[in-house]
Amino acid sequence: MVSTARRALIVIVLIAMIVGVGFAVLDYNYLGIGQVDEHGLFYISGIQDTNSNESYTVEFHGVSFTFLHYNPPGFYVNGTFYTAPDAPNTAHFMLTYPDNEVEYLSLSVGGFVAVRPGSPLRPILGNHIAPTAGVATAFTAQLHFKWVYLVAF
Length: 153
What we know:
Low-confidence stretches: none
Mean pLDDT: 85
Radius of gyration: 20 Å
Number of strands: 11
Strand content: 35-45%
Structural class: alpha+beta
C-alpha cells in the first residue's frame, strides 16, 4: 500500500513539474526563454523602452543590441509637423553579432491597438544564422511602446 501511494505521489510531482516548465516556456517572463512563433526557442530579454528617444546599447547572449531612435508617425500641414497619436512608432535597432557582422532592424511599436493579455510576441528577426537574433513586441499592456530582444536558444 505504501509503495502505491509513493508511486502516485511521484507521478503527481512529475506531472506538476512538466506542466510548470511548459507554462514557463510558453510565458517567457518566468525563465527568460520562450517559443517565438514557428522560429523555435529563444532567449528573451527583459522589457526595453524608448529611453526618451536616446540611443543605448544592451549586450544580450553575445549580441549587442543598440536602440538607435524611434520615429513618431505624423504629417505636415503648411510646413508644421503634427504627430498622429493613433499610429505606431517605428523603432530602429542596430545588432552587432560576435563575428562583428552588423544588421539594422525596424519594429512598429505602440499606437491604438487592441491590448490582449497573452498576446504572442511579434518578432522581427535578422538574417544572421548563428546566432539568430531580433526584436519583438506584443499587443500587451507590458509591451505597449516597448520591446524585448531575442537570441536563438
